[in-house]
C-alpha cells in the first residue's frame, strides 16, 4: 500500500450520540453493499444504543474508517465499567448475535479489519476486550486468535439454513428427513388435535399487541431457561424487552424484524422474533407455552419462521447452539464461533493475576490438611484457566 493510500485512510472512534446518529445514511449504504447482518445495520445499532447500552451506563465506542472520505468500515462497540477496570464489548445486548465488522468483502478487507482491531486495542481505553461469537474464518477471528494474553476462549456451534435457490418449499422439504419422527407440518397436525391452530405475522404498527406478545414470550422463555439452566441476564431486563419491540416498530428507524405467533383457539402458544434479511435473516428469540410442551409448539413456530424466510428470498441464521431443530433445518450446515476475552493493558493483567491469586487462596483454604502430609500449595498466580486457543489457519 503506497503512502498516498495510507494518508487517505482515516480511522475514528465515535463516542458522541449526535455523531453516531449522523452516520445513518452512509452506514445504510455500506450495509446494503456489504450484505450485512441485521445486527450490523444502523437501525439495530441505534436502537441497541438507545434502549440497551446507554440505559445500562455503557460508553459508546464506534470505530469507523473512511477511505478518500468514503465510509468503508463500521464496528459498533461500547465499554463497560467493572470496578476499576473497563471492558470493550459489542454494542447492544450480548445474546446470540455474532460479532463481526461491517466491511465489504474485497482485496482491502484484511487491511481494513486489521486497522480496526488495532484501534480497538489502542484507542478505546479498555483493559479487556470481550467479543461474543466470532466466527472462524473471518479476518477478525484470525487477528484475535493470535493474541497472546487470552483470559477466556470458548467455542460454540452456529447453524444457518441456505434457503435461496432451493426451488419450491415442497422441493426443499423433500430434502429433509424427520425431526423427532415428524416431517414438516407434522407438529402442527399434532397440535391441531387440541383445537384450532393458526399462524399470524403481527402488523409491525400494532405496537400494543406486539408489546403484549413479547412480554408473554419472555415469561415463557424465563420458565424454559430455569428448567434448562440456560440463563441470560437480559431475560429479566425491561430495556431488552422494549428493545425487541422497537426492532419490530420504531418511529426512529425502519422496521428491522417481524413477530410470528402460533395460536391455539386464538390464544398464543408460541412466538418468535426474526430479523429481515440482506439476504440472511436471523432468528432472534423465541418462546412457547410449557403447558403444550408435548405438542412442540415451539417447533411449529420455527418451521413457520423458516417458511417465511424461504418465501421472502432469505437464508436464515439460527445463531449459537447445537439444538436438534437447528441442525435439521440447516441440513447439518454448521460452523464454529468463539467467545474470547483478551487482556489489553498491564492494569488488566494485574486484575487477572489478582483473580487467579484469590482463586488459589480459596482452593488452598478448602484443601484439608492431614498430620504428616505436606502442606497443600496454592495455584500459581497468573496461571490460565481458559481453554487453549486453536492454531491459526491460513
What is the SS-derived class? alpha+beta
Question: Which second-level CATH architecture of the largest domain applies?
Answer: 3-Layer(aba) Sandwich
H/E topology pattern: HEHHHEEEEHEHEHHEHHEEEHEHEH
Query: Major beta sheet, specifics?
Result: 13 strands, mixed
What do the pLDDT scores average to?
A: 88
- Number of H- or I-type helical stretches: 13
**How many domains comprise the coordinates?**
2
Keywords: Transferase
Pfam families: Acetyltransf_6
Protein name: Acetyltransferase
GO molecular function: transferase activity
Structural overview:
The chain is α+β, with helices and mostly antiparallel strands and 394 residues long. The chain has 2 domains: 3-156 and 337-348, Aminopeptidase (3-Layer(aba) Sandwich), CATH 3.40.630; 163-332, Aminopeptidase (3-Layer(aba) Sandwich), CATH 3.40.630.30. It contains 13 helices and 13 strands. The protein has helices at 3-8, 17-21, 24-34, 42-53, 109-123, 139-144, 169-174, 186-191, 207-228, 238-248, 297-312, 324-329, 346-366; strands at 9-14, 59-67, 70-82, 85-90, 102-103, 128-135, 150-161, 197-201, 257-264, 267-275, 280-288, 315-320, 334-343. A hairpin with a 2-residue loop joins strand 3 and strand 4. The chain is globular and about 65 Å long. The model is unreliable at 1-5 and 373-394 (pLDDT under 50).
Amino acid at each position: 500500500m503506497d503512502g498516498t493510500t495510507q494518508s487517505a485512510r482515516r480511522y475514528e472512534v465515535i463516542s458522541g450520540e449526535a455523531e453516531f446518529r449522523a452516520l445513518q445514511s452512509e452506514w445504510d449504504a455500506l450495509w446494503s453493499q456489504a450484505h450485512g447482518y441485521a445486527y450490523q445495520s444502523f437501525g439495530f445499532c441505534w436502537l441497541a444504543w438507545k434502549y440497551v447500552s446507554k440505559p445500562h451506563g455503557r460508553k459508546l465506542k464506534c470505530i469507523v474508517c473512511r477511505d478518500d472520505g468514503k465510509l468503508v468500515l463500521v464496528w459498533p462497540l461500547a465499554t463497560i465499567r467493572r470496578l476499576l477496570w473497563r471492558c470493550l464489548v459489542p454494542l447492544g445486548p450480548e445474546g446470540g448475535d455474532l460479532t463481526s465488522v461491517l466491511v465489504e468483502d474485497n482485496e482491502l478487507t484484511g487491511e481494513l479489519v486489521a486497522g480496526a482491531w488495532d484501534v480497538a486495542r489502542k484507542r478505546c481505553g479498555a483493559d479487556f476486550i470481550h467479543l461474543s461469537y466470532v466466527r472462524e474464518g473471518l479476518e477478525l477471528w484470525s487477528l484475535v486468535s493470535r493474541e497472546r494474553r487470552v483470559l477466556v476462549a470458548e467455542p460454540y456451534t452456529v447453524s444457518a439454513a441456505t434457503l435461496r435457490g432451493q426451488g419450491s418449499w415442497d422441493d426443499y422439504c423433500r430434502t429433509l428427513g424427520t425431526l423427532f419422527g415428524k416431517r414438516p407440518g407434522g407438529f402442527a397436525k399434532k397440535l391441531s388435535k387440541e383445537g384450532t391452530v393458526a399462524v399470524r405475522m403481527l402488523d409491525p404498527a400494532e405496537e400494543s399487541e406486539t408489546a403484549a406478545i413479547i412480554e408473554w414470550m419472555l415469561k415463557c422463555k424465563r420458565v424454559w431457561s430455569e428448567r434448562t439452566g440456560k440463563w441470560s441476564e437480559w431475560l429479566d431486563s425491561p430495556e431488552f424487552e422494549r428493545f425487541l419491540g422497537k426492532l419490530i416498530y420504531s418511529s426512529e428507524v425502519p422496521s428491522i424484524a417481524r413477530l410470528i405467533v402460533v395460536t391455539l383457539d386464538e390464544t398464543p402458544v408460541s412466538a418468535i422474533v426474526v430479523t429481515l434479511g440482506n439476504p440472511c435473516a436471523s432468528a432472534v428469540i423465541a418462546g412457547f407455552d410449557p403447558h403444550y410442551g408435548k405438542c412442540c409448539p415451539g417447533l411449529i413456530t420455527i418451521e413457520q419462521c423458516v417458511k417465511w424466510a424461504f418465501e421472502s428470498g432469505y437464508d436464515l441464521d439460527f445463531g449459537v447452539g447445537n439444538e436438534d431443530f437447528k441442525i435439521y433445518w440447516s441440513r447439518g450446515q454448521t460452523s464454529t464461533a468463539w467467545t474470547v476475552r483478551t487482556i489489553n493493558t498491564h492494569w488488566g493483567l494485574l486484575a487477572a493475576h489478582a483473580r487467579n491469586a484469590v482463586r488459589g487462596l480459596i482452593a488452598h483454604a478448602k484443601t484439608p490438611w492431614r498430620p504428616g502430609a505436606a502442606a497443600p500449595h496454592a495455584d500459581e498466580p497468573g496461571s490460565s484457566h481458559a481453554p487453549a486457543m486453536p492454531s491459526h489457519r491460513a
